[in-house]
Write a structure and sequence with these properties.
Layout: H1 8-16, H2 43-52, H3 55-58, H4 68-75, E1 81-83, H5 88-94, H6 103-129, H7 135-160, E2 163-164, E3 180-181, H8 183-200, H9 213-226, H10 230-237, E4 267-271, E5 274-277, E6 291-292, H11 296-300, E7 311-313, H12 315-321, H13 333-338, E8 339-340, E9 347-348, E10 351-352, H14 353-356, E11 366-367, E12 389-393, H15 394-407, H16 414-427, H17 439-453, H18 460-467, H19 470-477, H20 479-486, E13 489-490, E14 493-494, H21 503-508
Antiparallel strand pairs: 1-7, 2-3, 4-12, 5-6, 8-11, 9-10, 13-14
Length: 518
């Protein structure tokens, strides 16, 4: 059962107000609103400030990484789904026509820095006020702050490559001009933050939604894999497979995307979607009327189920789903839990597929992940989904370990890599891997398993990019998209591999320069 914090919205509003600067000299001070002089007095104040650090991840319209539009911007550039031309900024990303004026990529950029400012502020105030608190409390706050900052820094480097690295909180105009740091430098800071956080956070956190030592190690291991430091990745990730950690693959893959099985044994870190606050589903999550929910199910459901049908699976993705039948001769369970299509026994919003759709739509495909397809007859209005976003899962730890053992120059161990892949295959009721025991053959199955396991989870584009497979997979998926992608070729890279530094940043930060190709 979901644990609900009744006071969540007021906490966010109170704390967030501290992180807003005022340009007008005529602004009046509200005597009832917290200020730098009246806040930061006790443990509760720091807890409120920490709460506010999560809302930039969930911002619905303006680039929250796990918010409605943020999820779209993470999946739009891969070969998984096709977006219709309804939300222009998302469609631009999908068809590689986005510019440095794209409002959603710009929103994502500034949500990262919004959160960095908040974590930096908290740590600065903690150092200033540290004499008032116990070491246990200081370590607790510092560990959580460093996890959040490291998590954001990893995403910043993943999305924008080179960017300003802001590690202090200041509203002085003199501190704003800042040169870009390289992706390697940004990820090195993320590594440092997450390593320190892992030493401070508990193995088990009694507060739902708070990070743990395991969460820090899981994200750290992912940073290492992205940086091709596979030996370090193994060192960070392998302890998560044994005591004192109790993570495991849950029996039913679909439990990772519904409301009934949140915070299960496979979940390592979740973003809470709570039925608290107000009714504003498009707010920033920080005004008193903001809903702490999202609209994800409504976005992707078919019109026959009350949805907005923003995106549908590509034929290329469906072909991947159909490659291998399970031990019982059925389609891969993960495919059936991720997509509805016209196969015998398929249910969609509590009705057989052929009953909910007319014959002219029997050849269509519809998303199921994070939808209410098995609990409701249609998506309701207003669309206020309370299904948590699973940001870090144990199945990814398993497949990252498989990749690390497969690609490590000094610790390459093909049988061990296959052993980890087989854990994923067995949960899906597939036969064990039976291909050639070569790096190339095993990697092909690893790519296949990740494509299916993390369909529309926001992993596919980044996998293809780091493996050097993006252009080939887009070529076989959509010729129009491929031709436009290839217009981004510049030197040894492609400008569409990363979102550009926003035009606003270039205009206001004189030391910041465009990234290559932009």
């Amino acid at each position: 059962m979901k644990r609900i914090y009744i006071y969540l919205t007021s906490c966010i509003v109170s704390a967030a107000s501290l992180f807003v600067s005022c340009d007008s000299q005529l602004d009046q001070v509200n005597p009832n609103q917290a200020t730098e002089d009246t806040f930061w007095k006790n443990e509760a104040d720091f807890e409120l400030a920490l709460t506010s650090c999560y809302t930039p991840l969930k911002n619905a319209l303006n680039g929250g990484y796990y918010g409605t539009r943020g999820v779209m911007m993470r999946i739009a550039r891969a070969d998984e789904v096709e977006f219709r031309n309804d939300i222009s900024d998302v469609f631009q990303a999908c068809y590689f026509t986005n510019t440095n004026g794209n409002s959603l990529s710009q929103g994502m950029f500034y949500q990262f820095y919004n959160a960095l400012y908040r974590t930096n502020s908290i740590m600065q105030k903690l150092e200033e006020k540290g004499g008032n608190f116990s070491k246990e409390f200081i370590d607790k706050v510092k560990g959580e702050c460093l996890f959040i900052r490291g998590f954001y820094l990893f995403q910043l480097g993943k999305e924008f490559k080179d960017a300003p690295l802001r590690l202090t909180a200041s509203q002085s105009p003199a501190t704003f001009p800042l040169e870009k740091s390289t992706q390697a430098e940004i990820w090195a800071q993320a590594e440092s933050d997450l390593s320190t956080a892992a030493g401070l956070l508990p193995v088990k956190n009694e507060v739902v939604g708070k990070p743990t030592k395991g969460a820090a190690l899981a994200v750290l291991g992912k940073v290492y894999v992205y940086g091709e430091q596979f030996e370090k990745a193994i060192t960070a990730l392998e302890p998560l497979t044994a005591s004192p950690y109790t993570y495991k693959l849950v029996d039913d893959f679909a439990w990772n995307f519904d409301e009934a099985h949140e915070n299960n044994e496979e979940s390592i870190f979740e973003l809470l979607m709570e039925p608290v606050g107000g009714t504003d589903i498009w707010g920033n999550g920080e005004n008193i009327n903001s809903s702490q929910t999202n609209t994800r199910p409504k976005e992707y459901a078919a019109p026959e189920a009350g949805g907005w049908y923003e995106a549908t699976p590509t034929q290329q993705m469906m072909d991947l789903f159909w490659v291998e039948k399970d031990k019982d001769g059925d389609f891969d369970y993960r495919a059936r839990a991720s997509v509805a299509w016209d196969y015998e026994g398929c249910m969609y919003y509590l009705k057989p597929f052929r009953e909910i759709f007319k014959e002219d739509k029997w050849n269509t495909y519809w998303l199921l992940k994070y939808q209410n397809w098995n609990t409701a007859s249609s998506e309701v209005s207003p669309p206020m989904s309370c299904i948590n976003e699973r940001a870090v899962r144990y199945d990814e730890v398993i497949l990252l370990l498989a990749e690390a053992y497969l690609r490590s120059a000094s610790q390459q161990n093909l049988p061990k890599a296959v052993g980890y892949i087989n854990q994923i295959r067995r949960r899906a009721n597939l036969n064990d891997y039976s291909g050639a025991m070569t790096q190339e053959a095993i990697f092909a199955d690893l790519e296949h398993q990740r494509a299916i396991e993390f369909f529309v989870d926001g992993e596919r584009f980044y996998d293809l990019r780091r493996w050097g497979l993006l252009e080939e997979r887009i070529r076989t998926c959509n010729e129009v998209r491929y031709k436009q992608l290839m217009t981004g070729k510049t030197g040894n890279t492609n400008r569409y591999y990363y979102y550009p530094i926003p035009s606003k940043e270039l205009e206001t930060n004189p030391l910041c320069t465009p990234n290559e190709g932009w």
